[in-house]
Write a structure and sequence with these properties.
This protein has about 290 residues and is an alpha/beta fold. Helices cover about 40% and strands about 20% of the residues. Helix 4 packs antiparallel against helix 5. The two termini are about 25 Å apart. It holds the Pfam family Abhydrolase_6. Keywords: Hydrolase.
Length: about 290
């Protein structure tokens, strides 16, 4: 993969690209950086697509002064730097929220969307008693400034799943999570992020072909959100991954690779028409 740097006023966005063809832009979760997508970028490039991923401000190797900015504006700047008019966007969690906000602002620049455990600006949040318990542990670690404990708790929340056994996902995947999230936790605070308009009430306006994915070990609120989006977004296909939590691109990369490859093939073959079964599909682990 080739590294790149994009200079903005007060910021430098760092990322990687690989392959040639129509662009697929990968947007990382809020506890990760662009490295969560390396396997999917490889698959996209091997199938004739131009894969691009970058660290947003506050993550990975990107840097930023504490100034007013918008993640959507930054995404537009990345596209413009590559002279890209329209792309497919693959986003997880907060990255998915950025993709949806961009799609609502620039619908003509979105060929398709893959949204995994996605954030949606203005979406409601609720938690079970068990989930609220781990959220309270996280809040306590944050208030005490214990970033090492924060990293461990967030690995339980987002990598293992809030209702799963802590340490369910181990080895190199867990070490990668710790490294990505540690970088985000130790970055200087950015206090002037501009709020995006409410998207929750407007998701039905996103008409681009969309694949919705959520793991059945993810937060209950995100599973419920996934169901709502599958019923509301007019050109969407929904799949629930068995035995996966919030970051299946590193937990179950082979499954996500296969689903992404099929989605890209469908877009390329159907010239923008993505005919799907409206019912949500249960996808067992391989």
């Amino acid at each position: 993969m080739d590294e790149f740097a994009i200079e903005l006023d007060g910021a430098e966005l760092i990322g990687v690209e690989t392959g040639d063809g129509l662009p697929v832009v990968f947007l990382h979760a809020g506890v990760c950086d662009h490295r969560m997508w390396h396997e999917q970028m490889r698959v996209a490039a091997e199938n004739g697509w131009h894969a691009i991923a970058y660290d947003r401000r506050g993550y990975g190797d990107s840097t930023s002064a504490d100034e007013a900015f918008s993640h959507v504006d930054d995404l537009e700047a990345v596209l413009d730097a590559f002279d890209i008019h329209a792309a497919i966007f693959v986003g997880c969690s907060l990255g998915g929220g950025v993709a949806v906000d961009f799609a609502l602002r620039h619908p003509g620049r979105v060929i398709g969307l893959v949204l995994i455990g996605t954030s949606i600006t203005g979406a409601p949040w609720s938690a079970t008693e068990e989930e609220r318990g781990i959220e309270m542990v996280e809040e306590d670690a944050w208030e005490r400034g214990d970033l090492e404990m924060m990293n461990k708790v967030q690995a339980h929340e987002w990598l293992d799943g809030p209702r799963a056994q802590s340490g369910r996902v181990g080895g190199a995947v867990r070490e990668l999570f710790f490294d990505m999230n540690a970088k985000a936790l130790t970055k200087p605070a950015l206090t002037q992020i501009e709020d995006e308009p409410d998207a929750w009430s407007r998701v039905g306006q996103v008409t681009a072909p969309t694949m919705l994915i959520v793991g059945d070990e993810d937060f209950t609120a995100l599973i419920e959100r996934h169901e709502h989006l599958s019923e509301t977004m007019p050109n969407s296909f929904a799949a629930v991954l068995e035995g996966a939590a919030h970051i299946p691109s590193i937990e179950q990369p082979e499954m996500i690779n296969r689903m992404l490859e099929e989605f890209l093939d469908a877009l390329a073959g159907d010239e923008g028409e993505f005919d799907v079964d409206e019912e949500s599909e249960e996808v067992p682990p391989e």
